[in-house]
Amino acid sequence: MKEHLKSLTIVFLVAASVVQTGMLWYSSPSYQDSGATDFENIPPIGHDDFQKEDIHQLAAPPEILFHEEGNHRRILPGKEHRVLVDQLHHARLDKPREIEPSPAQWKALMEEENGLELRFHRNLPADVAQTFFRSGEENGFETEDFNRIWIFGEGENNRVTVWMISDQTQTVVQATALIQNYDKVMDLAGRAGGEPLLPYVKGDKPGLKEEDLEGDRVPHVFYLPETNPAVPRLTYELEEIKMDSMKMILFRNPNSVEEIRLSGDNYVYTDTLENGRTLQYNEKHKKMMYYNSASPPEKESTPEEELNTIISFMNRHNGWTGNYLLDGVETDRGNGGSDYDFRLHVKGLPVYGPEQYPGLDTISLTAHQGVTKYGRSLVYFSFRSDTKEADRLPSGKQVLDAVNELGADLTKIRQIYPGYQARTEKTAKKKSLVLKPVWVVVFQDGKQGYLATSESGRDARWTGAEPNPF
């Protein structure tokens, strides 16, 4: 009798479950009806290979210089660069203090010491630069920003010296750090470095003189090769992200988004059910800017929290359509956050341009308890469609001769590094993006230009805006 009652109870429960499931099925609106974007329905944009997992991958320096007894070689983003970054970011900085190195110390550092120099193309606020290291601790650095991190020393018991250098404020903060397997790190860097480079300080002749290092607390040193480096010219087919995809990514209820045409090629999209989310779009330039003011910040956030928020947000829709690295930061703690710019790198080189599609080379984000601003181009290119043509960069002598002809002051050069200048090319069937190898010339006042090999191959030619900004 008990077994019979137990069976009836089980049958009743199963039947009730089926009825309840049916009621929920027919009473709940479908995804299309509700308009709510589920995580599974968010359309991915970029390839999985470009998504970031940790802050140090996003805040990695775009170039690492390997110094060995006066010999210098450049390591650009790639497999070996990635391994070095993964090793170095575990370092914990200890006992930081500001120092004033003498000209003799600078000369010894550049001509005698073995080490690694992490070079950023723009100054980063000190608290942002510190996020590269695993410790992530606030060390109380008095200087405002850094653009170079020089690691050197014998590595006894894996203990090394670290100089955090600011060319802009002419300050150096010295610390010590523990880097596991430092000898192996240096061995890898030695194998990964490119062709030999010559150092230039205050002039068109390579080499270091102690008198050249006088007058500045921190000397501006840039490095150029003696020969013409072979760097291929690349061509990619352009692709476009659909606006419907961006609406599904950025709005909780994409079906309730209203399109308003402002003027010409400018549109604005707003959510009629939820205030605070706005998407502006220029159809001609394929440039969008998203704002979310729905949740005002309650407290000030740290750069580590903001960068982690950016990584989570971008990975949610595979937003990195290439290898983007942190390029610059505009700090605005008064409004509860900072603006972060990330630059596209192809084959290890930073990309600049094209003018037709502003934003194709950079992605900008602001984060504070969520992403509050997101700017990018909806045009990108597939890395599976590249074609290569042989090309070369100008030699060091050709670069400096060209800068001299422009009437520029060589002592005012802050950095010179290799990059790609982008331009669009249209055929009957498609639009393409051509990446031309150039030297990027940056001056102390922030002005920037590009030098490429001339058609004859015998000299360098200016490819920046006309007239030149010098």
UniProtKB/TrEMBL annotation:
Q: Which domain of life is it from?
A: Bacteria
Limits of the Regulatory protein YycH domain? 3-444
Q: Which residues form a coiled coil?
A: none
**Can you name this protein?**
Regulatory protein YycH of two-component signal transduction system YycFG
Give the organism, scientific name: Melghirimyces profundicolus
